[in-house]
Amino acid sequence: MKRYFLSAFVLICASTAMSQTVDEVINKYVDAIGGKEKLANLQSVYMETVSVMQNGNEVTSKMWKVNNKLVRREINFGMGSMTSVVTDKEGWNSNPRNGNKFEPVAPEALQMQQAELDVAGPLVDYKAKGHTAELQGKENVDSTECYKVKLTLKSGRDITYYIDTKNYYVVRMKTKGGGGMGGNRPGANPDQEFIVDYSDYRKTPEGYAFPYAITRVGQGASTNVEKIEVNKPVDPKLYKAE
Predict the structure, then answer these.
(1) H helices then E strands: how many in the chain?
(2) Where is 226: in which H helix or E strand?
(3) What is the DSSP annotation of 60-93?
(4) Which residues pair with 70 in a beta bridge?
(5) Cα-based torsion angle of the residue sequence 65, 126, 144, 116 in order, rounded to the nearest 10 degrees
(6) Which side of the chain, N or C, has fewer Cβ within a 10 Å radius?
(7) Angle CA 43–200–82, to nearest 5
(8) Which residue has the higher pLDDT, 148 or 108?
(9) Can you tell me the mean pLDDT for 122-136?
(10) Which residues on adjacent β-strands are paired with residue 159?
(11) How far apart are the C-alpha atoms of 232 and 7, rounded to whole Å?
(12) Is pLDDT of 20 > 70?
């Protein structure tokens, strides 16, 4: 009986230590990208990017995010354009295949895309948001040693983050089923793995750190951020499917 209680005590202590360890890693990540207090005041982000596709074509995009309210993307690929509007209640997509008419986003895809309404990101204050986190040891991303953190969202979706052990920036994100405009589209494989690498972190004048280089591994697409603005007013028209 004593041995049973001793084993149970050791397991509880090990579990607590792991929980404390993952929280320590996530807290240092939060500090690295701006700090908890500053991130609590992050209400909107505007971003302009240029992506170079595998065939050499350039794609430009504009994105507006309003915390828990809006994600709008306008993408121009030379021969046409696409727009995605996602709010906390509904969403629409338009593209050349449907004559650039806005069509409602399917409920299952909308739920996935609404995760992006969290401007600070799901790791920040993750417990209060109903998510759970697990530290899965260390793993190298190329030559960078990283902490491997598995985050299970309140919705049940898993996201794995690779956090640099030196500067605590996220250098890789891995998930299944996609996300954003391409996530969970009709005919897509829900088990398909998506990997995104982040680098060239820079701080805005307000002190928020963002990656300025984004690579979709295996898709031949690299994205450079040209402009970032935070906490700027957002035109109410951008919430509409137009």
Answers:
(1) 3, 13
(2) strand 221-230
(3) EEEEEEETTTEEEEEEE-SS-EEEEEEESS-EEE
(4) 66, 87
(5) -20
(6) N
(7) 60
(8) 148
(9) 97
(10) 151, 175
(11) 55
(12) no
Distance CA 93, CA 72 (A): 10
Spatial distance between the Cα atoms of 234 and 214, rounded to a whole number of angstroms:
25
Do the Cβ atoms of 49 and 224 come closer than 8 Å?
Answer: yes
CA atoms within 13 A on the CB side of 189: 5
Side chain identity at residue 114, one-letter code:
Q
Give the pLDDT confidence of 165-204 residue by residue, as tens digits: 999 999 999 998 755 433 444 445 667 889 999 999 999 9
Task: List, in sequence order, every beta strand (DSSP E) within 165-208.
Answer: 170-176, 193-203
Tell me the mean pLDDT in the region 66-86.
Answer: 94
Q: Which two tokens stand for residue 49?
A: 């990017």
What 3-state DSSP class applies to 50? strand
Query: Above 90 in pLDDT, residue 239?
Result: yes
For 94-112, give one letter per residue: b (16+ CB within 10 A) or e. bbeeeeeebeebeeebbeb
Kindly list the structural domains of the chain, giving each domain's residue range(s) and its CATH number in brackets, ordered by start: 2-239 (2.50.20.10)
Report pLDDT for 181. Answer: 37
